[in-house]
Amino acid sequence: MIGIKNPALREAYERLYHKTPLGFYNCGRLCDGLCCRGDCQGMWLYPGEEELFRDKEGFEVCETEGNYDYPMVICSGECNREERPLACRIFPAFPLVTEDDGKVSVEVIYDPRASMCPLARNKKPLDRAFIKEVRKAALYLARDKEIFEYMKAVSEEITEIIELKNKLEGIF
Ligand code: SF4
Ligand code: SF4
């Protein structure tokens, strides 16, 4: 994508440009393009993405109280694939990051917030090449201190959501 100055962000965008959750199969056929209908709640932006979408036609950047003080972007439902935000490139997966003694580990999981996605609901196996690129992209993103702090915070939040879901499943 043209104009991305941050090298970690640029690498992640490029790595996830062609990759999709089911590889060559367009998963939008399973759900009639559910996540690209322009009626979604918006996509959380990673640090550094805001400037890519501000004043861009077809996108509206909105302030929000969530997302660790970073904004979200709402799209019109049509975009140039090259310009999709990271959240769309990664959806419905999420790279869960942890740090141990300076070593960063990434586990690519289904995002528990992606319950509207039939792939996530049915835990359909994701394309291995997609998983590999999400993981590599996450490792690049982790090189940027601000982005890494953000990813760690979201990872903790997602881990809590998963733990809560598991507990509730045990109750009901
Ligand atoms: S909701 Fe899931 S299956 Fe549907 S297009 Fe989005 S990622 Fe693919
Ligand atoms: S930015 Fe593009 S890929 Fe993301 S939800 Fe909108 S239309 Fe779909």
Structure, briefly:
This protein is of the alpha+beta class and 172 residues long.
Could you characterize what this model shows?
The protein is of the alpha+beta class. It has one domain (7-171). Helices cover 39% and strands 15% of the residues. The protein has 7 helices and 5 strands. It has helices at 7-15, 28-31, 50-53, 86-90, 118-121, 128-141, 145-171; strands at residues 43-44, 59-62, 72-75, 93-100, 103-110. A 3-stranded antiparallel β-sheet has the order 1-3-2, with no helix packed on it. A hairpin with a 2-residue loop joins strand 4 and strand 5 (103-110). The termini are far apart. The mean pLDDT is 93. Bound molecules: iron/sulfur cluster (2 copies).
Task: Please specify the SSE layout and strand pairing.
Elements: H1 7-15, H2 28-31, E1 43-44, H3 50-53, E2 59-62, E3 72-75, H4 86-90, E4 93-100, E5 103-110, H5 118-121, H6 128-141, H7 145-171
The structure holds iron/sulfur cluster (2 copies).
One iron/sulfur cluster (SF4) binds next to loops.
Q: Name the average pLDDT.
A: 93
Structural class: alpha+beta
Oligomer: single chain
**Biggest sheet statistics:** 3 strands, antiparallel
Order of helices and strands: HHEHEEHEEHHH
Kindly state the number of beta strands. Answer: 5
In helices, the fraction of residues equals 25-40%
Question: What share of the residues does DSSP label as strand, in percent?
Answer: 15-25%
Q: Taking strands numbered 1, 2, ... along the chain, how are they ordered across the largest sheet?
A: 1-3-2
Bound molecules: iron/sulfur cluster
- Total domains, how many? 1
